[in-house]
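Inputs:
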Amino acid sequence: MMGRTIFIDPGRCIGCQACVSACRECDSHRGKSMIHLDYPDEGHSVASLPTVCMHCEDPVAPCAEVCPADAILVTADGVVQQADTTRCIGCANCVNACPFGVPKIDLQAKLQMKCNLCYDRTAYGLAPMCATVCPTGALFYGTLDELRAERPGVQVADSFTFGTTTVSTGVAMVVPADKVRWPVPGGLPVVEINGRDVR
Amino acid sequence: MTEPPQTAEPSPPSGAAPAPGPAPGVTADGGPSPQAPAAVRRRAVLAGTAVSVLLILAIVFGSRLLRDFDSALLPYAVATVFLAFGVAYRYTVWISAPGARRLFRQGWRSFFSAANFRRAPTALPRMIATYLGFQKFLGARSHARWAAHQLLFWGCLLAAAITFPLTWGWFTFTSATGSGPGYEMRIWGFEIIGFDALGFLGWLMFHGLDIAAVLVIAGAAYFLWRRMKDRGAITGQRFAYDLVPLIALVVISVTGLLLTFSSIFLHGGGYQFLAVLHMVSVVFTLIYIPFGKFFHIVQRPAAVGMQLFKYTSRRTGEGEGEVLVCRRCHEPIDTAPYVANLRGTMRDLDLGFDEWAEYCPRCKRVLRGAAYLDHVKKGFK
Ligand code: HEM
Ligand code: SF4
Ligand code: SF4
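Outputs:
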């Protein structure tokens, strides 16, 4: 089901924050950056992970399912939009239910905001801001064929496990060739907290 | 479990997730699910019918068995009956979806709780004023949006307060002297006030709708302008959902003002035509209210229920009032009853990762990154 989408390769991310700045320039949420850049192994390695909305397909957009106000629209092209400003009551259900930790909330404005795949750009065939500026290709926008033309043989995965649930997504992640046969672990069940094994 | 199951096949299109297919409450237009289960639809029709019958009874008895009913306003009255049906129908479908249903229960439970009332008697009126009346949160989005919406809101409220009772024959204006200037206003036949049609109060009484129209035109014009200019507002904008409501409000208000203009300055010239245009636009808008953007008027009170639920659960003692902190970083997430409510919603929806709700969004991302680092690509190489 992968069409033109974002491919994330954390292995290429150098944590330069260019995507974070570029996201702030997106017309649909000017001045606020929606992309997350995290350091999963802070203090031990420089590994960094950019997170955009994965545009979950099945189950379709958990954020939208838990929304009590029907505020999150999934357009026919599979893009999970930001909350409708008229409907969102700022309850934060979506923020806490999203398995990828994507939506943000403005508690003063009672409004959720999230990555909408730069709908103002991608709806017109332009690449999203983050993928446009990423200097290393950690964020790539295009079709799988276009990605493979640049990186022959690259493998991607578009399903993630959280506990017993598998979530398949519109946005995909680059994985090593021997790891394409199972869904990518999403971090739940949690096995380790602050270096301590909590199993 | 450290490793993901090695035996699992590449997931088929529907993955391991239960019951593929449209999720309740989520559709391509983000509106109510058109495939609401038959049981829900039946309940919604029942609710709609009950409410419309009640309204018809209220009209009949409120107009003293139609003696005070103005038959010229019949189309408007019929439209309000359709409106009542639509609102009750859509409301029932809406609160039948898992997310809304649980919040609805919690919200009303907080609303009716005598203990809450004793503990914080001012919380409810305060929240109604901030979230429904003055919409303070809109000011945080932008002051102009707040101001424009206040104009729309009070304009519509004023207009509704005048016109609905008139169409239902609940208000009447009678004059003992035939044609004024001394008038009496009656509600359900009871005299409320007498006033002089030529005085200030009389002017207000007869021009309330013109004032409302001016407020609405100002507010709607700002939002229309914003929908042409603001690139955030334009992103994903849909004509039927975003522009039709604003255009409808402008048409209603302008034709309404022109009616006054016609009767004062044109000796009624064009009055008939304008009256039909005005009526058509009002009837269309009333019937449309439950189905498009205007449904937020019915939906927004949920914000009060939600806030009240969070507020009261923060203030109850005995461990319940605790704010739940992220299991990993100990940053606060929300009140424990709120998180329990969300986890229930997730289980209702077969989202099997409700335990995840006890981690903050950042820790979810970091833990996913760590899992990728450990199991997918050692050291991100
Ligand atoms: C129950 C009280 C109400 C509340 C809490 C409320 C809340 C809201 C909110 C939060 C928005 C989004 C505004 C933005 O972010 O820019 C909005 C938009 C809007 N409201 Fe209300 N509203 C209420 C009643 C009304 C009434 C009575 C009307 C009159 C018909 C109305 C007409 C509109 C319109 C036309 C918009 C769309 C503006 C646009 O083009 O973006 N609202 N409302
Ligand atoms: S990643 Fe989160 S915000 Fe994006 S569609 Fe999935 S649940 Fe919604
Ligand atoms: S914060 Fe807004 S968009 Fe998110 S679940 Fe609540 S109402 Fe829906």
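Remarks. The mean pLDDT of chain A is 92. Residues 6 and 69 of chain A are 28 Å apart (CA to CA).
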